[in-house]
Write the structure tokens for this entry.
Amino acid sequence: MVGGALSGFLVSYVGVLAFIATLGMAGVFSSLAYYASDGKPVYGLVERNFVDIARGTSLGLSNKIWIMLIFAAIIWFILDQTPLGRRMYAVGGNPEAARYSGINTKLIRMIAFTICGVGAALGGLLGSASTATANVTATQPFMLNSIAAVFIGMAMFRNGKPNLPGTILGVITLRTLENGLNFTSINDFLQSAITGAVVVIAVIPSALSRIRQSR
């Protein structure tokens, strides 16, 4: 959450590009985690009750899925049912128009980054609880996959715009693809290459749509 807030501050009030700020803060916190753990898995930090929740099931589904769905429902409510969400859509769609309409675009961006940080922190906690281990390298593959899921969702819904249902379907698509690749015993590096190719292919329709609209 702190990382998201700091990234939001850099983007909103300092003027750093969003992608650069995100990568930079990821590098800072990863380095701090490496330093604190000496680059090794750390055991015994996660409470047993939390481990049991993360590893347990309810109504035939993993508790992690239920937690994800609850978090997604909260985000959907914020985005689609509250003034804050409408302001976020306005800032994301056209920052200049949003600013001229009286929206505090800097604050809205910072709030959006902070919410993303909360989601990342929740995912990290659930991952650590699932293995009962704090491992700084465990989530490294997720950065590309999280970006890919958003772009796949953009290609599926709302004419190439980021949206929550599409992102969820993007996550499911990537997870299905990953499981299929694991069954074929494809090298991990090639799996990353395939994921990157999926991102590029997913972006093409929205890019072509924007080109047609600009003509």
Notes: Residues 85 and 171 are 22 Å apart (CA to CA). The chain has a mean pLDDT of 81.
